[in-house]
Amino acid sequence: MQYHVLGSSGLKVSDVCLGTMTWGIQNTQSDADAQLAMALERGVNVIDTAEMYPVPPNSDTYGDTERILGNWLSRHSDKRSELVVMTKIVGSGFTYIRNGGPITRTGIATALDASLARLKTDYIDVYQLHWPNRSTPHFGKHWPNRLTPSRINREQEVEGMRDILRGIKAALDAGKIRHWGLSDDTPWGIHTFLMLCHEMSVPKPVSIQNEFSLLHQKDWPYLIEMCAIEDIAYLPWSPLATGMLSGKYQNEARPAGSRWTLPQRQGLFRNKPQAQEATARYVKLAQDVGITPAQLALAWCKQVDGVTSTIIGATSEAQLSENIDAFSLHLEAPVLDEISNIIRQYPAGF
For the whole model, what pTM was predicted? Predict the structure, then answer.
């Protein structure tokens, strides 16, 4: 396992970040305990969760993933200082979470205290904004059909971001969080927060986590270049494109208990003909190289210049072990060249 500095935070994080969104629906407490034991034994030191998890989100299980992690932390308090624990405040859209309202200064105060209680910890290493209050091209949304950028009121949006930063500063000053980060944001969002942080004397975000995979490279190179220059760690989520790049959904297969058998908030927005065709090419390439399709996708993600730590999830110990093994692999130039050929034939962002 290799380690890298998380943006400007000074924290060192492993190549692998353990994602947790299956804990509470697809995985039990004992499953999570086993995953944590394996991850830590293999050198993983960063764990990512969110107040809205598990996924698919619903009012009955809201907050259960944090509770499961908190139960483990309460039994392993000696490990807390060795870990980088990241969680997120949800954006608008869920009526059972603060009446579905946007992220605000007061919302941060309420959400943060609730997350700390569920996690059974005194502080969070990196507190993240799960998504912006404005509409952005994430979660399968594309310009211009499903978004209306011309209707965004810039001044209103910027004032809302100032309000968020007041909440972040209060949390930093109180010692409840050590750093903060973004998620599912854009170059404009990063730029504006950096500008406002300078204006308001608030520490800048140390990281951003966005969707990024062989089937969805919209952040490369422009957003990732910005992160590298501004010293903001880039953390890919869904590096297997909701499991599609493992090859398990080929030919309309739906393995029992897999994510695509569950009702999904975003729907199956990666299940497109071009994505299936590209996946078939990646599966064949992985077979030729002698590794699994999931390992090909994860090893590629790790080798993208600018990626700091990749968020992986699993529903079984076997999956988790396979995925962690990918980060000890090195893809040689001929393999990377063939991946580039496939990307050129099947451009990013299905």
Answer: 0.94
